[in-house]
Design brief:
alpha/beta; 6-stranded mixed β-sheet; 14 helices; 382 residues; 19% strand
């Protein structure tokens, strides 16, 4: 039998490559001579950058930038050997993983460091930039990022706001001016900036950046309302400065709205991160001739259907006529829904929850590799 393993990471437990290793070990327990093809996947979130860089044969670079709280840190990015194409992962500079739980707070974080990485890439000669935006600690609409690229953000009195600008500063912005000597000129753009979004949420509204992602980044209900008002004001400033309406653009609300700012000012193209990586790694060709495709993620919920790896893999596999099985640490069901009904809604043959009942969250994380190996072995054996 031939298996294709195309999982996402299991957050806080295994990266996508580690998930592949555990899955392969489970298959080998039962079918030692099975043909196994591994294809670790991402959707624009943390871990997508290295996978895309590997597919493009890009070389790791390092840059000293500011993290989401304005502290210096060393962030990775990648540049092809001909220095024309760069891969940047927002989480490297502005990621939530860099902050302790006590430090999280979307009102006081900034995407400034991500802008520093884009600047470093363009100054190194890159004219094509892939920006993976999942896993951020920010809800600043990309304002901090633009500051790092030289854009001037002015208050109602015409005074320039000091960097790094945060989510709390959004309502203070009255005017946006491009830099005198922009490293990334907006009209016409001298770089092809493509943003790999891991969700399709708009900037504003019930599915917008503030209500959906603000709480994940430490925002209280009152702070969510403040952030939503700030993003609405920022959208108006962007429209006045660039003529582009961004409030309802799919994906503009990813990463705390960073795509919104870059969509308007730098004419960035927003794309589903999964689709970009799937093309780069030739996923559809890898599916050819396979008997099964195994995929998975740490938590399967409604966000899975909005551009995440599991939904993308099951869709591609279905188009290729290959059945899928999904392995997850946890699954969130709709009221009255069964796991079998969720599987049908997702379009997969089976969903396997790998964690034994009654296991604590901490123990489940620690035992992810062994639980996944056993779950895959049991599935193959059945």
């Amino acid at each position: 039998m031939r298996f294709l393993l195309a999982p996402d990471k299991f957050k806080d437990a295994l990266d996508a490559a580690g998930v592949c290793q555990a899955m392969a070990a489970g298959i080998r327990e039962v079918l030692p001579h099975a043909e196994i093809i591994t294809c670790p996947m991402g959707d624009g979130g943390e871990g997508t950058g290295p996978l895309l860089a590997q597919a493009l044969n890009a070389i790791e670079q390092r840059e000293t930038v500011l993290d989401a709280l304005g502290r210096e840190c060393t962030a990775r990015w990648w540049l092809t050997a001909d220095r024309t194409t760069a891969v940047i992962e927002m989480a490297e500079a502005s990621g939530l993983w860099r902050l302790s739980p006590a430090e999280r707070g979307a009102l006081r974080t900034s995407s400034h460091g991500t802008g520093q990485l884009i600047k470093a890439a363009t100054e190194s000669g890159a004219r094509r930039v892939f920006l993976c935006v999942g896993g951020s600690a920010t809800v600043d609409g990309g304002a901090g990022c633009l500051q790092a690229l030289g854009w001037r953000l002015l208050d109602a009195g015409g005074r320039e706001l000091s960097p790094p600008l945060t989510g709390a500063d959004l309502r203070r912005i009255a005017r946006l001016e491009p830099p005198a000597n922009p490293p990334v000129p907006p009209n016409p753009p001298v770089i092809d900036l493509q943003i790999l979004c891991d969700v399709d949420n708009p900037l504003l509204g019930p599915r917008g950046a503030a209500p959906v992602f603000g709480p994940q980044k430490g925002a209280s209900p009152d702070e969510v309302q403040e952030l939503a008002a700030g993003l609405e004001s920022w959208a108006g400033v962007l429209k006045e400065a660039t003529g582009r309406e961004v409030a309802d653009v799919p994906g503009a609300g990813a990463a705390g709205g960073l795509p919104a700012g870059l969509f308007c000012t730098l004419r960035a193209r927003l794309a589903a991160g999964f689709d970009v990586l799937a093309e780069a790694v030739d996923l559809r060709n890898k599916l050819s001739g396979c008997d099964w495709c195994l995929t998975g993620e740490g938590r399967l919920d409604e966000q899975t259907f909005g551009g995440k790896v599991v939904a993308g893999v099951t869709r591609c596999a279905a188009e290729a006529g290959v059945p899928t099985a999904v392995f997850v640490g946890a699954a969130v069901l709709r009221a009255g829904e069964t796991l079998e009904q969720l599987a049908r809604r997702l379009g997969t043959a089976a969903i396997q929850i790998i964690s034994p009942r009654g296991l604590s969250h901490e123990a489940a994380l620690a035992q992810t590799a062994s639980n996944l190996r056993c779950a895959v072995a049991d599935f193959v054996r059945s």
